[in-house]
Amino acid sequence: MKTINFILILFLPLLAFGQDMPRNxxxxxxxxxxxxxxxxxxxxxxxxxxxxxxxxxxxxxxxPVNDGKIYVEIVHGAVTDLDKPVDGKALEARxxxxxxxxxxxxxxxxxxxxxxxxxxxxxxxGHSLNEVVVLAEDNQGPGLMNSDTYATATTGGEGxxxxxxxGNYNGLTAARAAGAVPSLAxxxxxxxxxxxFEGGSSSHGTSCLETVFDHxxxxxYYIMKVSSFADLGAAVQDxxxxxxDIISHSISRYNTGWDDDTGxxxxxxxxxxxxxxxxxTSAGNxxxxxxxxxxxxxxxxxxxxxxxxxxxxxxxxxxxxxAAGTVQARLQWNSPSTEDHYDLYLYEAGTNNLLASSTNxxxxxxxxxxxxxxQQVYLAVRANTxxxxxxxxxxxxxxxxxxxxxxxxxxxxxxxxxxxxxVISVGALPMADYNQPPxxxxxxxxxSSRGPTNNGNPAxxxxxxxxxxxxxxxxxxxxxxxxNAAGAAAAFWSGHPQLSARGVRLILYRKAGLYKDWGDSExxxxxxxxxxxxxxxxxxxxxIWRLGGNLESDPELPYYNLSNVDDDAVVxxxxxxxxxxxxxxxxxxxxxxxxxxxxxxxxxxxxxxxYPGDPPPPGPEGSPTxxxxxxxxxxxxxxLPDSQDEAPGERTLNAFPNPFSSTITxxxxxxxxxxxxxxxxxxNGNHLATVVxxxxxxxxxxxxxxxxxxxxxGVYLCRLSTRDGVQVIRLVKGK
Length: 735
Fold this sequence. Notes:
Shape: elongated
Mean pLDDT: 84
Strand order of the largest sheet: 7-8-6-9-10-19-20
Radius of gyration: 30 Å
CATH topology of the largest domain: Rossmann fold
CATH class of the largest domain: Alpha Beta
Number of domains: 4
Oligomer: single chain
Low-confidence stretches: 1-17, 583-651
CATH architecture of the largest domain: 3-Layer(aba) Sandwich
Largest sheet: 7 strands, parallel
Distance between the termini: 80 Å
């Protein structure tokens, strides 16, 4: 008995903590062909004598199958060679296949299981045959995000066109019967790969659609079923052609290239963005199932050492009868997919039996493995290049534990690594914590992917609630957070139809930073700017945010200041001004109160032209009010000599916080290099202090601080004098 216990003590660390790779470990059958992936080659071999076996193997790897055919993608060059187009008609004629979609350097087609290798052999030079794997990515939302005030006060997304792009819509008919998704009359369907729209076992797309619909029930919906990258490109083009405003895309894409903005997924998202579409995409659920770093081989045997002597990255597959556990591992590296090269292997821990491998010669590596039993396994990476580059490994898992060795940083997936402004990546925050106050830490969903991107850019952009419910039960992951964000944006946009996509984005970002900025201040790599949240809807709400840069009184953007609003001839006289600058928010236990802010009767952020001693605009002194009646009165600006008069939209002096207690920041924008004098005066025009006095300051936004600790409470004037004229604003010092 003592001997058995001793053996177990030695054996258990092998299962739990990785191991040195055995010298005679099975490397499987290498893939000798650069024009077909390992996965498709295995299916072709399995289906040579019995096509059913090939089809079953493809299904087990989550590949789309239909009528004895497998959905595949032809790639011209490396996955990042988007400038190498494919000729769909020429491929059809050459290969005797039906091409369904083409996009950039990719074409999708259905190929009989027994013809995979034959088709691959006859591809034009520089082309390769790749598998397509449909990965299921990863009514409380409106209440948490306050979009329900839009759904009840307006028509709930009226006038907004929303596209939901996904790969699985099982249960859609039942959800429609329950009134949980748009009616047929309000839906347009696109099925790019063909086959049954509701085929498959996953209701992922249906849940995404339900979640968006909760926020914007009267929007116009485009429901798009995709599988391949080419399908995604075609879907985005149809969105552009149909005037779609918002896309919800809860699918993680892998092996698209190392750098930001590379690969077909980023290209599609960028095209949507530049055509005025807000493209919401999930950041991914890969925290804990991602590793990234330099190749490490201290013993020179070709195997990567994850830590110390461990050459296996262990985890457990918790498969059970009727619910398979699935490994969907993806490996890419910091060079083109057609260069360098690693191989990827999955072994059973303890026995070292080879379960799956990927030894592609011309593409990044991917392997798939499923089991209906519990199994301890490990992934191993082997280099086939003299100078291995940095690499990253993902497991898009189902019923798997986290990696033994994982990298928290840079675990976001494509196209979250798009830098296009209107592409918005979304992280997940459990709904139970969504009302936590700003600064709260430790509430991000454990699985939610974190930034920065591989090029060091911030990610995610925003967070939204997860674990909200659908007709299928609780919906989780960044897959749930993304349509919650897209739906809330649609509700907001329908209430403010004068805004452009950029204007909506700027306001949503700023609100998140003011009211639900969890974690570090400003943007961070866990929560982004914070959680998406809306003010209560009011028909006359208008938003003011200086850093939006709207100096032209453009109603499509948040205004620069209150006078900037007044310069806009198209706005109503009785507006509710909501300032998004740091001095203005009211934050109480994470709950936002609608604050029309100072209106036209208080100086504060209001600019008027004049000299010290000129009377301030008429109106009561005091605090901000929410009374709409107080917004109706307008004030007249005192006239200046013609030489001092400013054109509309050029008033640029601001102060914050205002009112203030001790120190105030004065901000002004110079159109050109000029002499500057910035001073403080009392209401009688008496000079109290000089803040800036320079013979020349460079053009751009300038800031200066003024300490008024020595001054009593009251109202003061700040005067900016430059070669372009004079501007004066009022400052209110409290106790």
